[in-house]
Each structure stands twice: as C-alpha cells, then as structure tokens.
Amino acid sequence: MLTVRQRTVLAPQLYQGLKVLRMGAAELQQLIQSELNENPVLELPEPVDTGLTAESQPYRELWNEYAGANRIHGSNRQGETTPHPNPVELTASPTTLAEHLGVQLELQDLAEAENRIGRAIIGSLDDNGYLRDSIASLSETTSEPPGEVEKVLAVIQGFDPPGIAARSLEECLLNQMDPGDAQGLPGRIVRHCLPQLGRGSIGSIVRMLSENRYRVEYAIALIRRLCPSPGSQFDTSPPAGAAIPDVFIRKSGDSWAILTNREITPSLSISRDCERLVEKLADADAREYIQAKSERARQLIKDVNQRRLTLTRVARAIANAQEEFFEKGRDSLKPMNLDDIARVLDVNPSTVSRAIQGKYMSTPFGIFEFKFFFSTGYAVASGPDLSATALKERLKKMIAAEDGRRPLSDQKLADALKRESISISRRTVTKYREELGLPASWQRKSSA
C-alpha cells in the first residue's frame, strides 16, 4: 500500500553552511587549505589600506606580521621582493607564542611607543615564556624610560597564557593565582618555600610557616595545578588537541571588543584573473569548469563569513550576559542556557548549539570553550543567581579559609551557603567537592 509522508530535506547549500558552522578551528583550517589547493578561483589576498577603519586596523597589522613570518610575496621596507609560498601557509601555519601574544597586544589601546615596547618584550621571551632581558636592557633597546617598560610588561603579564613574561619562577606562579590565593597560604609557600616545595618536603614547609599539614597539602595541590613554563605549550608543531581561540574578547573603553581570529577565518576572495579568463575562453568545457569552481568558491566564502558573523554575535551576547565574569572571573559566572542566547539573537537554540560546538574564546582570564559559559544555577535571594561553576569556586574558597582544627563538614558547608540564601543539599556539596578534588573534612583536619 502506498503511503504519503512529509520530511524535511535540506538544500545542499544550506547543509554545507551548517557543516561549516559546526566545524572547529582545526577542521575549518583543513577545509580552507584543501579548497585553496584545489580551486584556482579561490585566493587569499593581501588586505588593502583603502578605507581602513579603527576596527579593521588590527586585522591589517596582524596580516603584516603573518605575511612577514611566512614570506608572502611582496616588497619589504627595503624594497626587496620575497618568495611566494602556497597562500594556505597563512591559515594553516602553527600558532607560535609570539603570534599568540601579538594578537592580544593588538587588542590593547596602546600608543605607538607602548606597542614598540610590547613587541620588544614579546621578542625577548624564551621558549618557556620567561623574560630573560632586564628592564634596563629593554629600556636601552626601545629608547624608552624603564618605567614605561615596566608598565607595558604589566599589561603583557595579564595576557594568555597565565604566568607569561615572568622574570622568575616565583613571579610566574604568583601571576597565575587568584588574588586570594596569592595573598594566602599558596602565595606564602611560593614566596618563602620554593626549594622545599621542589624537594617535596612538606614537613619543612609546615614547620617554616607554622601551618597545619592538611592546609599545606591543599595549598600545594593548588600550586601544582599551575604551569611553571607557560610558553612550552606553543611549538612549531603544537599538539593536535591544542585549543585555538575562535574569538578574542578584551575591554575597549566602557565596552567589550570582539575580534575574530582571522588566522582561522581569513578574508577569502574570488580571483579576478580567473573571472576575466572565463570571458575569453572559447572552450565550453573549460568555461563550465571555471564557472563551477567560481560558484563553489562563492559558496565557501559565504559560509565562512556567515560562520564568523554568527560566532561574533554569539560571543557578544555571551559577553553582555556574563559581563561580571569578564570583569571579575569565575566567581561571577551566572547561570545561562542556550535558550537565553537564542532569544537575544532571535534564532533557534539549535543554531546556537552548532555555533558553540568545539569553539574557544580568549578572555582576560584565559581561554575557555564556549560551552563553559552555559551552566545550571542556584537562586540567591539577596543577589544575582550563581552558576554551578561559580558555586564550586565559592566552595573552594570556603574550604581554603576554614580553621584547620575544625574543618567544615559537607553538611556545615551546605548550611553556611543556605545562610547566604543559596539553597543546596549536602549531597550536591559532596559532589562538587569531589569534582574539585578536595578531601573530606576528616582528611583536612589538622593534628595540631
């Protein structure tokens, strides 16, 4: 018996667009590389200076840096012509530490002299991300006062990865800590007990600082989560699973600037030479081939541009919804779901889901996957709701500040949170504590 059924069939162009939107950075780079290699109509042009706006200026300067690093064809300042490699080197080349920091430097509203100092500092970092040149040496190199060098160094030390541009292991570790940890026991251990920490002499640290053993062990566990060589994750051959930011978010005046990573999504274009050629071709098959390639290139350009636009819109909506996080950090992350962003953007939640899948965002507090910002939450009667992530941070700080002789049980932690108008069960506290890798109260109790 014949039956009639309705089903939705996506047009090939729409399917391709959704596929590009779902792609992570590495997948998109591979797609662009493949198309640039196989499609003679598609090209990666050098941006022109005409009509540059303040917003587009960072893209131009970044392109110049990448072009110089990859020896893109053109004339340098001395008028020398350089070789012309495969244009895909621009999009597929590994991200070095200098490039990663250079992108962030361009997001800062710095004067030319400060930019020059910043580039000198970045150029002076060793493979582990440490600054080995002295302030006096950098001052002499840049012809700028030592105080200006110190000021720009403080800016760069706030870049991702945390701990970058430190002048010592102590400074590197302290710069990676939350302010509370840096002023608390973890910071004291780093300042006064690094040799003992290196030898694993916990007993010596306990005696030197007159602290109970469990608090010291907890503080050491926090320190061991830090990276002593923040630059080592950047290599000419980075690991396959390295997180590449799709967007960068930084403060610009009173608002947040959203800059997409043009190393991932470059401004592709159609070759004018090929367009002119197709008009002169007498061979119908050759003309049809070029026209087909042109259509394929236009579709890819449209899909890549749409992906960039969608990611920028989602990132801006997240920045507006999570403004306190971008100002203060994890403790201020609010509960948020896909529907919240979808309503703001007037799109289907499935579009937001595709857009954030496998995408990363560089923030003032490090690189986070987009989905990090979507979390369940808990109502707080006396203030804004807390996300589960922010609640975990609250628990971690409560345990770090407790009296080691009378550590708080999970029930007491739950009761303390309820007094702050945060309704949470003991079982949930236990679950979050274990996810944080923190021992139970009886294990944290001091023997003193």
Q: Would you give an account of this structure?
A:
This protein is an alpha+beta fold. It folds into three domains: 97-233, no CATH class; 247-373, no CATH class; 377-444, Homeodomain-like (Arc Repressor Mutant, subunit A). The chain contains 23 helices and ten strands. The chain has helices at residues 12-22, 25-38, 57-70, 89-92, 97-106, 112-123, 135-142, 146-156, 169-176, 179-183, 185-192, 194-199, 202-209, 213-224, 272-280, 284-321, 323-328, 338-345, 349-356, 388-400, 410-419, 426-435, 441-444, and strands spanning 42-43, 74-75, 81-82, 247-252, 255-260, 269-270, 360-363, 366-369, 377-378, 386-387. It has a four-stranded mixed sheet, covered by helices on one side. A two-stranded antiparallel sheet has the order 1-6. Strands 2-3 form a two-stranded antiparallel sheet. A hairpin with a 2-residue loop joins strand 7 (360-363) and strand 8. Helix 15 (272-280) packs antiparallel against helix 16 and helix 18 packs across helix 19 (349-356). The termini are far apart. Mean pLDDT is 76; it is low at 6-10, 47-94 and 235-241.
How are the secondary structure elements laid out?
Elements: H1 12-22, H2 25-38, E1 42-43, H3 57-70, E2 74-75, E3 81-82, H4 89-92, H5 97-106, H6 112-123, H7 135-142, H8 146-156, H9 169-176, H10 179-183, H11 185-192, H12 194-199, H13 202-209, H14 213-224, E4 247-252, E5 255-260, E6 269-270, H15 272-280, H16 284-321, H17 323-328, H18 338-345, H19 349-356, E7 360-363, E8 366-369, E9 377-378, E10 386-387, H20 388-400, H21 410-419, H22 426-435, H23 441-444
Parallel strand pairs: 4-7
Antiparallel strand pairs: 1-6, 2-3, 4-5, 7-8, 9-10
Helix pairs in contact: 1-16, 3-5, 5-6, 6-7, 6-8, 7-8, 11-14, 15-16, 18-19, 21-22
